[in-house]
Specification:
By secondary structure, the chain is mainly β. It has one helix and twelve strands, in the order ββββββαββββββ. The model has no long low-confidence stretch (mean pLDDT 88).
Length: 151
């Protein structure tokens, strides 16, 4: 049995303004479903090979009913958008339509996802939690990316 392969287009996620002209910016994003205990949440995320971990925003954590602990047992610090952010590690199930679900340790931001950029996604699929389980090929010339479950 061969692993499923998805070919996905880059999607317009923002418009870059220069000299009064708005230029669309296309990025490799995908909708991912997060399952934690009995809760489920779907959000658009950026696939980012430079991100060491998979991170979701505070809104996803709230939607899933994740309680942030004061004892620090699961606290991590990550650099996002040039700023150090505090996050809490949680074990979840992730899914993308067309691929088998997988389990992963991911990070949820303690504070709101505020990079100062007008980004439309609620997380980043990085190495830990996504790229360590999938083969991903980026084709910027054709503005598409291919995702395959690693065997």
């Amino acid at each position: 049995m061969t692993a499923p392969v998805l070919t996905l287009p880059y999607r317009e996620e923002e418009r870059y303004r220069t000299n009064g002209t708005a230029t669309p910016v296309f990025r490799p994003t995908v909708d991912v479903t997060i399952r934690h205990l009995e809760a489920t949440w779907t959000t658009r995320v950026l696939v980012d090979p430079s991100a060491p971990v998979t991170v979701f925003d505070r809104g996803a954590a709230d939607a899933l009913g994740i309680e942030f602990r004061e004892d620090g047992r699961k606290v991590e610090r990550h650099r996002l958008g040039g700023n150090e952010r505090v996050a809490q590690r949680e074990h979840v199930r992730l899914g993308i339509d067309g691929l088998p679900e997988w389990e992963a340790d991911v990070a949820f931001l303690v504070d709101e996802w505020n990079t100062g950029w007008n980004l439309r996604f609620g997380g980043v699929l990085g190495t830990r939690g996504f790229l360590d389980r999938h083969v991903v090929t980026f084709d910027g010339a054709r503005q598409l990316f291919v995702v395959e479950a690693a065997t």
